[in-house]
Design a protein that fits this description.
Layout lengths: L12 E2 L2 E2 L16 E11 L2 E7 L6 E7 L6 H13 L2 E15 L2 E14 L8 E7 L11 H29 L5 H10 L4 H7 L5 H17 L1 H4 L3 H7 L5 H14 L7 H4 L1 H6 L6 H17 L4 H8 L13 H18 L7 H8 L7 H14 L1
Parallel strand pairs: 3-7
Antiparallel strand pairs: 1-2, 3-4, 3-5, 4-5, 4-8, 6-7
Helix pairs in contact: 2-5, 3-5, 4-5, 5-8, 7-8, 8-11, 11-13, 13-15
Length: about 375
């Protein structure tokens, strides 16, 4: 970061980033009408921060970073500057803060990110020498831009503390010092923990990943309104490489249809019911099993849901979906129809579907069909 800076404002943190209200300059002169953008990164290893000992004035330590080119995002600029100034490749972990600073040439909007080194080790460059400094000593050393570095590290410390607390909570799931039920109760008492549990779903540790997903699934049934702001995250989870997480997402999304004021499920209807063509019986059964709940929450979709469920007899068999699996799915389908049959108009096709299973070799399917017809005949 080769230019002098003055901090204008940094405000409160939301989740892992700082939301910043940046007012327009008061009575700007011609010199400060334009605004440039810059990015910086905070890279920590073993309680040390990677800093650049600058070769050019102002001398002193600075964060790794620099101006954002016209065709770059702030994150892309941060990655590029790390390569240019320290010869390392980095992974952006999250945003720390944003602020406006100024010098005699005008205003500059800067973004500070957390990052980790993904390739290489810091080395000298034409900009200066990159080196790690103990985080508790940075404030005592000569800084090229004292206000900027101190402000950035102040907010970094806040986010760092919260991350450590999050990791500690999730670690308890891994070492079994807390059960899924105990974590569920903690979240019920403090819904500010929801973002932490959501992050746990992406953990590389199965115990954390599936434990957090189970907690979210249970919460969605009792507190759908608390989870609805994260609906998009659950929709993304449908594409997870882990089938169990896909099944969890299906259940959560179905529960959230009760509070779907923005019609987000309507927008993914085809994607959701596209899983009826999945090669795994459990995936298909999840779609079918949640359809009754969705239909009751979304009466406008009942005709479409009915049409999709009537297609289950046409599902192709696979290694993971046998003829017996299809009979299980047919049984689940009748159970779902039973939940909203009174709202299906016309209903002749559903009756015909149920009658076709009266002679099924699967006893529970026969019983389900018989009971359905007794109830609705």
């Amino acid at each position: 970061m080769a230019n002098a800076r003055a901090i204008i404002i940094i405000e409160n943190k939301t989740n892992d980033s700082l939301r910043v209200q940046i007012p327009p300059p008061a009575s700007p002169s011609r010199d400060c009408m334009s605004e440039t953008r810059a990015s910086g990164v905070i890279i920590e290893e073993d309680s040390k921060i990677l800093m650049l000992d600058r070769k050019f004035p102002p001398l002193g330590l600075d964060l790794i970073g620099g101006y954002i080119d016209e065709d770059e995002t702030p994150e892309e600029a941060a990655v590029r500057e790390a390569k240019e100034e320290a010869d390392i490749e980095i992974s952006i972990e999250g945003k720390v803060c944003s602020f406006r600073w100024r010098d005699r040439r005008g205003y500059h909007l800067e973004h500070i990110f957390r990052a980790t080194i993904s390739k290489g080790r810091p080395s000298d460059s034409r900009e200066g020498r990159a080196k790690f400094i103990p985080i508790n000593e940075v404030q005592k050393m000569q800084l090229a831009f004292p206000t900027m570095v101190r402000k950035s590290l102040k907010y970094y410390e806040k986010s760092r503390s919260e991350i450590l607390m999050e990791n500690k909570l999730l670690q308890k799931l891994l070492d079994k010092s807390i059960t899924k039920e105990e974590l569920l109760q903690k979240v019920k008492q403090d819904f500010e923990l929801l973002p932490t549990v959501l992050k746990g779903v992406s953990s590389s540790k199965a115990a954390i990943r599936y434990g957090c997903a189970k907690v979210l699934m249970d919460l969605s049934e009792e507190y759908p309104e608390k989870l609805y702001p994260y609906m998009d995250s659950f929709i993304d989870l449908l594409d997870s490489k882990y089938r169990i997480l896909t099944w969890n997402a299906m259940a959560i999304i179905a529960s959230l249809t009760r509070v779907d004021k923005d019609g987000k499920f309507d927008g993914i209807f085809d994607k959701y019911y596209g899983f009826l063509n999945d090669e795994y019986m459990v995936t298909v059964a999840n779609v079918v099993g949640h359809s009754g709940k969705i239909a009751l929450a979304k009466p406008n979709l009942i005709p479409k849901i009915t049409n999709e469920l009537l297609k289950v007899e046409e599902i192709s068999t696979t290694t993971h979906l046998t003829e017996e699996c299809k009979r299980v799915i047919a049984e689940k389908t009748i159970e779902s129809f039973n939940m909203f049959f009174g709202q299906i108009k016309p209903n002749e096709k559903v009756i015909a579907f149920v009658k076709r299973h009266l002679d099924s070799p699967r006893a529970t399917l026969r019983t389900e069909a018989e009971n359905f017809l007794k109830k609705w005949s």
